[in-house]
Structures are given as structure tokens and as C-alpha cells.
Here is the input.
Amino acid sequence: MEIQRKVKYEEELDRTFSEVIKTMSGDNELDHCIQCGTCSSSCPMSVYMDYPPRKIIALVKNGFKDEALRSFTIWLCPSCYTCQVRCPAKIKITDVMYALKRLAIQEKVYPSRFSIPVLDREMSKMIAKNGRNSELWVVLKLYLKSRKPLGLLKMAPMGLKLMKTGRMSLKKESIKDKKQLRTLLKALKEEA
Amino acid sequence: MSGYVYYPGCSLKGNAKHYEESILPVFKEIDLPLEELEDWNCCGATAYFSVDDRMAAAICGRNLSLAEKMQKDIIAPCAGCFLTLKKSNKFLAGGSEKARKILGALDKAGCSYGGKVDVKHPLQVLVQEDILERIKARVTRPLAGLKVACYYGCQLVRPFTDFDDPDYPMTLDRLMAAIGAEPVDYSAKTRCCGGSLTGTIEEVGLRLNYILLKEAKKKGADVIATICPLCQFNLEILQDKMVKKYKDDITIPILYFSQLLGLGLGLSKNTLGFSRSIIDLKPMWGKIENGGRR
Here is the structure.
């Protein structure tokens, strides 16, 4: 058995972390968290999370960057905003979750084949390129990139139901003025 | 802005065709014909905000700019599009440095945005007092006997709701009552369906949606009325799997509220996209007096 220390000492924490997340999320109330747990008890996903939302806020507030960024919690958040509207301290919890997702992607510490960040990235790439998202093609990319081609077979009955009711399209959707979209995204990069 | 322009988003052109097939005729029927926003782009949904929030707000800005040029407010039937466009609109109007830079990029790309457009959900428009009265006056096929669970989901009422309650909204219940249907007291009406989790972690999607369906059945609903394509899809597509997994017959039709509304307004049953239902609608037709015929 390997003995592992379960707590972190102060020098191992990232004291700038909460400020970074506040800037990224646009939340200014994080420091006012009273750890009441309204968020965790409101969250429909908390039963599946490694750290419920209340703990995520505590981790962010106290500089536990690794723990927060590597958690499954941030990817399980479906952004239903229940925690955010109920928080008595008015913390923008859902926006904090978004900021954590973005930082995890930037710093490449998300689980790389985990389907949720893969979906987010593939969909964003498709939108940046074509201006629109094509449901079927996003799903195909999702299963290829998360390397679960067998999952695609499991999806076949679902696809069949959609096909029968005329709800599946093979067409790759696109806007007409892709040039404008490219100019916009380029201008945005230059402004950064 | 005077009048509305219709922003379909990807779903209403994809698996949610029957939402478009019912919402457009309904708006036409009540003298608010909608035209589609020319060359709209995807709102980016929750995905883009998880990857790059500046790009996410910028692509929403392009849509807002297109509507502004037409001098119209946006109607977005998909709750995801509604929230994303509304959130970006609020952010761009906020005056932060980040927002100013995004507006600058929109300028450079020839889609300047002056912040004049409002984003609305069709439900919000339909329950305005004068319009609700118009609807009541034009009901020709009251859905008497039909028990409806009104499911609002999350992103319509949170966090930016300015027309209903974030926990226990009632506008859709009132609308369904206006066409003669009987809304049931559906306590799960704003509990999240899991969004894209059904496609990414099925185990989680199954459980979340099972809870929603079970509650509707418990309250005696004949049908669930939805206002969002992702909710509609999630609640409907995995029902057979749930029946097997939880050994519980939670089978129930999941329709768009606009399909039921169109029916109440006397529009032809054949043109409202009912044939796109994956769940058998026969038991439901049996509940409506005279089978939904005029």
C-alpha cells in the first residue's frame, strides 16, 4: 500500500486561481460563498459528480486549481442554471463552470477522449468553419474522436427512428457568407 | 424594433422539423406571420461557451446584427438559442472592454451591432395579454379531455427570465388551458433533461429523463408539451430503453406546445408535423373528444 498525503499545504495552492476564474467568468461574488450547499442540493447532476458544486466553489476560492480543472464535475454541468438562480450569495456558478471548462481546455488538462469536451470542441470547430452545425456530422465526429466507434453501432436504432420520421438529414449545413464569418473570427483574434 | 424575425437555429432545420412545421403556421394564424432571418448562423449553444466565450458572443453578434438591419426583434423557438442569443446580447451591451473588442470585430466584418435587438421566445409572445385573448377567441377545436404536462426545461426560464418564474413557471400552463386542454400539476416542469448528456453519457441521460417521464405519468398526463428541441428529443428518443431498463411503462407522447396550439386553433392535423412523432399518438387522439377532428 502506498501512503499518500490527503491534504495540501499552503505553498502547493495557486493563490491567483480564484482571481483568474473571476475574470474569466465575470463573477464577482465568489468570495462571498458561505458553503450553504443550496447549489449541490439543487443540482440534478450532483449525484454523478466527483465534487458537487459547493465543493467546486470552495476549491476555486482556496486555490485548488488541479482538483477543480481535472474534475468530472465541470463537464457534467449541463448549464441548467438552477444553482445560479438559487444561490443566496448571487454567485454565477454556471458561468464559473464554463470558465473552468475553458481553462481546462486551454491548459489541456481535460480527459482527452471524454465525450463531453470532445463534443464541445468538434461542434465549435464545425460552427467556425461552416457557420452552422449539422447534427448527424457532429455525432459522427464525436464517436470517432472519442474513439468509441462501437458506440456508433449502439446509436443505430436511434438513427433509424429519426430516419423513419424524416428527422435525420445527411446534408452538411452551411451559411452563404462564410467569408464574413472568417473575417469576423480573424478580426477577433487580432483584437485579443 | 417593430415586429419579429424568426431565428430557427440548427435543430428546427434538423430533428425538430415538426417544431418549425407547427410554430410558423400558428404565428400566421394569429396574424403575426414570421419570416426567416436571412443567412443566420448557429448560436454556438453550450458548446462554444465551453471552448471560447469571445467567439461565442461574436457569432451571436452576427445574428443580432442581421436582425437589426431588418429592424426586427428575434423570435427563437429553441430554448438553447434563446438563452445563448439573450446572454450574448446582454454581454455585448454591458460595456466591458471584452465586449467593446467583440463589437469592434463585428464592425470590421461588416456586421456592426448597435444593441437595439430584443430576443424573445415564442411562448413569451403568445402569452402577452392581447395575443392570448386573440388565441382564446380563435379556438375552434378545444382540446377538452386532454391532460398535458407542461415541461419548460431549464434554459427558457433561467437565468434571464423576465416573463415567468424560474422554478415554477405557469405561462405554458395558461396557454394550454386557453385551448381547452387540462394542464396537470407537473412538479418536474423545470428540472433539467441533461441537455447533450443523452448523447455523451447515456446512463445519465436515461435516469434524468426517466425521472421526468415518471412524474408526468404519475400526475396522469396524456402528453408532455415541450418548448425546446433538445428536451423534446431527450424525452422521446430513449423511452423504449427506459421501459426495458427500469421495467416501468413510462411511454408518453412528447409534442411541441405549438403542435397542440395549432390543433386547438383548428389547423389541419396533417400539417402540424404529428407524423414525426416516434411515440404512437393513437392513445392520445382517443383522449381528445372527437379524436382531434373538427
